[in-house]
């Protein structure tokens, strides 16, 4: 309960408590103890969490736009994207199923939508229109189940534990594809830079808000693996895409 001596107008109290919850509101705005370390950690974590969620709503748009403009997903591994989508979806379902604060997992919702769109375009622009529709149908149906009360907590925990494998597998598959292709194709530098920064920030917020070792470990690995792909994009920066030479038709 907020004391009456707070300097904050009543209409703003509810909004501020989203990032400065409970007793920390009193520490800051009633007792004016702005150096209260535990509350500083909570507030920084909340602010970072919501900033990550806000950023996640657009983080993959550069990648989406790049594929859409090129009408091609050349150089992007569909298997890698699928593993990434599975990892993101598992984090979303696990966070929601365990009633974690929205600020600790909310970005997974936006990342799943954008990653699913990338997978859809990879298939669609390769001429596999029905495959693209089937892919998205399976994804939507799976998430509808995982987010429902019918999904067992044990299943959600198993999927989250599998995140460690899926995070590494998704990025290693893409890294190997980049080496084989001698370039990074339609991968977006901006997207992977933002993903790397977001994953690093998520390590701190996950420790602070969930204390779940599986969640923390998955973000540590995501930081490392996103950094690997980012390094490849920089390494292959000036490498032109491979030229496909069509064979001459024999008359």
UniProtKB/TrEMBL annotation:
SMART domains: CTNS (SM00679). The chain crosses the membrane at residues 35-54, 75-96, 108-125, 132-151, 187-204, 216-237. It is found in: Membrane. Keywords: Membrane, Repeat, Transmembrane, Transmembrane helix, Transport. The keyword Signal does not apply. It is a multi-pass membrane protein. Belongs to the MPDU1 (TC 2.A.43.3) family. This is Mannose-P-dolichol utilization defect 1 protein homolog. The gene is LOC101855836.
């Amino acid at each position: 309960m907020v004391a009456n001596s707070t300097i904050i107008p009543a209409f703003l109290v509810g909004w501020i408590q989203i990032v400065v919850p409970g007793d920390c509101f009193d520490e800051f705005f009633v007792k004016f103890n702005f150096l209260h370390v535990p509350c500083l950690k909570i507030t920084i974590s909340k602010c970072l969490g919501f900033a990550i969620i806000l950023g996640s709503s657009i983080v993959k748009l550069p990648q989406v736009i790049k594929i859409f403009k090129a009408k091609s997903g050349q150089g992007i591994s569909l298997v890698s994207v699928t593993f990434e989508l599975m990892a993101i979806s598992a984090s979303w379902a696990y966070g929601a199923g365990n009633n974690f604060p929205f600020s600790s997992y909310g970005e997974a919702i936006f990342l799943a939508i954008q990653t699913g769109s990338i997978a859809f375009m990879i298939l669609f622009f390769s001429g596999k229109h029905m495959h693209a529709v089937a892919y998205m149908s399976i994804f939507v149906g799976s998430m509808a189940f995982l987010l429902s009360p019918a999904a067992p907590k044990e299943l959600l925990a198993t999927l989250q534990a599998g995140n460690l494998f899926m995070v590494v597998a998704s990025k290693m598959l893409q890294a190997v594809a980049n080496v084989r292709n001698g370039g990074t194709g339609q991968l977006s530098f901006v997207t992977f830079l933002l993903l790397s920064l977001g994953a690093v920030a998520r390590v701190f917020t996950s420790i602070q808000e969930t204390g779940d070792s599986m969640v923390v470990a998955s973000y540590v690995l995501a930081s490392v693996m996103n950094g690997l792909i980012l390094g490849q994009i920089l390494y292959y920066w000036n490498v032109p895409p491979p030229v496909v030479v069509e064979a001459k038709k024999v008359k």
